[in-house]
Amino acid sequence: MEKFTQNYIDSFMAELLRRNPGEPEFHQAVHEVLVSVAPYIMDYPHLRDLKILERIAEPERVVMFRVPWTDDRGEVRINRGYRVQCNSALGPYKGGIRFHASVNLSIMKFLAFEQTFKNSLTTLPMGGAKGGADFYPRGCSDGEVMRFCQSFMTELFRHIGQDTDVPAGDIGVGGREIGFLFGQYKRLANEFTGTLTGKGLGWGGSLLRPEATGYGLCYFAEQMLERVGESFEGKTVLVSGSGNVAQHAAQKAMRLGARVVTLSDSDGFIHDPDGLDEEKMAYVLELKNIRRGRIKEYATKFPGATYYPGKRPWGIPCDIALPCATQNEIGKEDAEALLKGGCRCVAEGANMPSTPEAVALFLENRILYSPGKASNAGGVATSGLEMSQNSMRVHWTREEVDAHLHRIMSDIHAACLRYGEESDGYINYVKGANLAGFIKVADAMVDQGLV
Ligand code: NDP
Ligand code: 2IT
Q: Residue 427's Cα: distance from chain center in Å?
């Protein structure tokens, strides 16, 4: 790398760390984008002079608020709510809400930053945001979850709106939580609008939104494989997580002919050497979405499978890995284990599941590797399609939505090829996604002046 480019990166990071101490996930996400786009910024000095990337790394607005509620024992509970509105150059702020004990400002800022580039890649008019709270619905009754959601929305509602900011689900926020959040929003705002996505099918939701992130991930991975003459057919696939993204990634990979042999949660993973089939998949959906059980129960129900408590799945030999749980779930040793086990393709369903050391190993070993902001964009893209249907007050068929999702994932893949090709012909999807996402946001910011 040119010396002046390296100097730019070093001084940028020094200033970012000085202004945002104690936010390691945010530093990690910004550094990855910075390394990808710095050479481009050097080639277009107006972007440097206008401090475009410096501005994107400073959220337009951060809201932090108290969320008081009462649990079933009558005890008063206090959580902290967030909405980070990172960038609105391309459209209203858009991004999920995460309810998990680990939520803090660093995690919210990294997710909102990532979302800005991801949403740019979708080709749809959406800015980037993320929100959440350090509250995890696991183990809570429906009543507790509802009271929490109502209290959370009682503050959030004044910061969002169909043309301002449109939240959706993420970890710990699925159909049940979106329902409670929407109900309270409607009550407070006195309007029935598409201010949240991931809504129920009967009241403004889009067909295929629940499936979209996992399905889109597989459509993207299919394109990566197709380019090198491969497919999912007959491949052994590891999936981590067992929530929304993992379930539908596993289902689609299985339907495309792969043998999906793992699923996990934060307590451990199951290994089923025979692979998932439709019956096992139906069991997983019922276990996780209706009974809200734990993945270890799978190994009791299907004795061919083994449960490994406290472990991640990356040591199992495979062809393809689809991390669909959480950030930094693939560290250096996990990446080494994957490579040793024969893995030739890692497509991220989660946001930033691979640490920088793991990403470096994937790129050095020239395997197919796609960052979440490209390969998991099908979820937010379908949220964008839900917004369009809400605005037009129409309801598209499953086939129509699926065709849009296919097209969008193909367009994102094409953008990665356009901007990510290295001199030896290797496609660096990290560089491609970051650069393609950045250029569109940067050009819009230049057009809109210093705001
Ligand atoms: P869910 O809450 O539905 O599922 C999350 C899954 O990941 C659960 O199996 C959960 O296990 C596991 N998990 C969560 N935190 C941890 C942790 N710290 N360590 C190990 N496992 C963990 O969330 P989603 O499926 O929606 O989200 C998964 C990932 O995909 C996240 O990174 C999210 O940001 C990303 N994503 C989601 C999109 C969406 O549309 N929902 C769109 C794009 C990306 P447990 O039950 O034990 O907590
Ligand atoms: O990380 C993500 O892209 C999401 N959680 C989905 C966001 C959305 O607005 O659908």
A: 21
Question: Which residue puts its alpha carbon closest to atom 9 of ligand 2?
Answer: 95
Q: What digits encode the pLDDT tens for the residues 11-29?
A: 999 999 999 999 999 999 9
Non-local (6+) Cβ contacts of 308 within 8 A are: 268, 269, 270, 271
**Measured distance CA(322)–CA(331) in Å, rounded:** 14
Query: 168: Cβ below 6 Å to ligand 2?
Result: yes
Q: Whose CA is nearest to atom 15 of ligand 1?
A: 326
345 phi/psi in degrees, rounded to 5: -150, 125
Q: What is the number of the ligand closest to the CA of 136?
A: 1
pLDDT tens sequence across 254-285? 999 999 999 999 999 999 999 999 999 999 99
Tokens 């509105």 appear where?
Answer: 85
Please give the positions annotated as active site: 130
CA distances for 51 relative to 2, 8, 17, 46, 450, angstroms: 20, 12, 17, 8, 10
Q: Are 268 and 311 in contact (CB under 8 A)?
A: yes
Ligand 2 centroid from CA 34, angstroms: 22
CA 383 to mean position of chain CA atoms: 13
